[in-house]
Amino acid sequence: MTVCGHAAPLPDPADAVPRPGGGPGDAALPPGPADTRRFAAASLAAGDPTGWFERLYAQARDGHAVVPWDAPAASVHLREFGLPPGEGRRALVVGCGPGRDAEHLATLGYTVTAFDIAETAIALARERHPGSPVDYRVADLLDPPPAWRRAFDLVLESNNVQALPAGIRARAIGAVGEFVAAGGTLLVLAAAATDTPGEGPPWPLTRAEIDAFAGRGLRPVTVERIPAAGSRLRLRWRAVFTR
């Protein structure tokens, strides 16, 4: 993600793709997570909670870093959810990164808009999916186009809010909900907080944070905690809300 749009650290085990790389002193972590935390720490120290997404993508493009969520297929928890056919309904993918989830929704018949705060991520999505019907945009979750307010029948928030520090997280959760049209659906996928959270990002979401997506006229439909075997992030949320 980025807040502002894009799929956040770390990936589901089934989504991960081994890649070379990693910075000095990062031997205790796989290259992708180490790169993520290195860039995030520098950005947060400078008072910029979202600028690290563009820097990470740009460095990865030049072969100097790894984007850990850059996997070849849509999230397994999205693929297994069983969304109904889109039939032209409007969908929005928050923090789309290279576009794997957005392309999946397009194959289901949704008219998809997908955004990321990182210009390099959007350039990569367009490059990887030439001729795609997805409308890829550079945009900021915390300052989105006014025309997107309550304009989408389906909104996908996958692993973005968990990449944000506490100071802006509540604002981001509220912004996600404002994209959902009357009668529309919000699908939230995220790491679930446990008693051994470890170093972030990501900072897994608590149940209270998941419940907060139900603000601004949304109501919960289902909230599931799904085991993620083989991952440090042992549990994941899959939550559905409607307006």
From TrEMBL:
Keyword Transferase: yes
Any one GO molecular function term: methyltransferase activity
InterPro entries recorded: Methyltransf_25, SAM-dependent_MTases_sf
SUPFAM superfamilies, A to Z: S-adenosyl-L-methionine-dependent methyltransferases (SSF53335)
Sequence ranges assigned to domain Methyltransferase in this UniProt record: 92-184
Keywords: Methyltransferase, S-adenosyl-L-methionine, Transferase
Pfam families according to UniProt: Methyltransf_25 (PF13649)
Region (Disordered): 1-34
Highest taxon of the lineage: Bacteria
Keyword Transferase: yes
Any GO BP annotation: methylation
Compositional bias segments (type: Low complexity): 7-19
Protein name: Methyltransferase family protein
Organism: Actinoplanes teichomyceticus
